[in-house]
Amino acid sequence: MKLEVGYVDIKDIQFGAQAEVRGGVLYVNEDAVKEIVLADGRIAEVELDIARPGESVRIAPVKDVIEPRTKICNDCNIFPGVLGKVKTVGAGRTHVLKGAAVVTCGQIVGFQEGIIDMTGLGAKYTPFSATNNLVLVFTPKEGLEPHDYEQALRMAGLKVAAYLGDLAKEVTPDRVETYETLPPLKSKEKYPDLPRVAYVKMLQTQGLLHDTYVYGVDMKQSLSTMLHPTEVMDGAIISGNCVSACDKNTTYHHLNNPVIHDLFEEHGKSLVFAGMVITNENVYLMDKERSSDWAAKLVQMMDVDGVIITQEGFGNPDTDLMMNCKKIEALGIPTVIITDEYAGRDGTSQSLADVDVAANAVVTGGNANEVVTLPKLDRVIGSLKEVDVIAGGFENNTLEDGSIVVELQAIIGATNEMGFNKMSAR
Amino acid sequence: MDILLTNNPECGGYFGKIYRVEYMDAPPLVVLTRARDMVHLGHGLLTHPLAGGLPPGSHPYRSVVLTAADGAPCAKSIGIIESAVEIYTKAPNVAFSAEHLKEYAALDLKLIKGGNL
Question: What pLDDT was estimated at residue B57?
């Protein structure tokens, strides 16, 4: 499967009467976006705002971040099975508004959303301080249950991102990149001497408000399965999570998965990117056993020499991670896992809730318990009302000078377990 | 009959017909410690005792589903529950407002329910 991705560089977002992309600027018609959002009767109100890199702005509570993309295609669309048709994506051509993002903001479950700072120390920990963000701040109709609100907000964000992405249909991209995966036999024939590497991507699926959707299917009810990596670039996987902000994969992370991009980069040079498996992280131990059995079986069928495994979340998913790792290693296939740590504020506690000797090659996204003081910023988009109760916050964590003290957990994408985060020992 | 060990007052009604519900008016660590004792007596873990995406100590409710005691203790279950007890022992204690207690209770119930479709 072969996908051409055309990147249209966006250096600013502005409100304007005419919705368009011109001269590297995304012009957004506020009324048109509001109409899309308010078509869902569950949402009482939506406010639009723009946050640009370097501005003294704090966005909270953030639920999801989505990159505007579009398919140049008559019979398929971005986010298949969720918006529009369900037809398989990952082939043909896709245009991306690179440098723009839609940020959805609303208090669904008070303690589970995150923070994006556009400047200062906090900006160093989140990748979304570097994007031009169209922020949607939602108010639900009174009495709306959290899971209904999550669904309404999730869909609204995706619709707005797809609407903005469509503005790139007729725009000539600044650059075009091509990504291609071959069927296993063909890739072996073409690169007989290169090691074959597969990617196992774990998705958070513990249940309500902890879900991830694949072609619109709730992944917790699926067996582990295979995808062409390019399908992920076209929105085959979307986030429905309200979990700790630092290591949840937003929809933006899925669309821009760095493991996929790096494996494509090395494909045909130092390795063969043999393909990817997606698997879930459920609550019941039998589900964990079944899903990890299937993930191991599928990579074995792909005839690979090595596997990279990425996790999402922490706590009981650490057990899924270890099951995947040790079952694949038991087949004689070496693994590298990418995770993050909850090692306590002083960093001395055990980093993962579950461990195994098979996990002998580990990349960490950082310690989510590390405490940081974020300076007071000039403007807040959304609300800081819940900043003491969000995961990573604590009582009386707003200081007299207006700065806030939080664990990295509270910052969107700070310890991302696909390696998308900014922390590094380099 | 499988057993639901919980300190979540919302769980009793829904799960009463599916599990033998053992309600404990106690913090999560006490629930997990009780689960550990049961695992050593031959009960197997059916659900993972740690929440996913909720930091230990930052939420008030924990529910764990175990099998009836059916023979020798399961080494895998022992490893998981011992680790969970250790993590919660070290976790900080957080106070919860009444508004959030309701949200936490609903979430805890729905995670057990969601996996049991």
Answer: 77
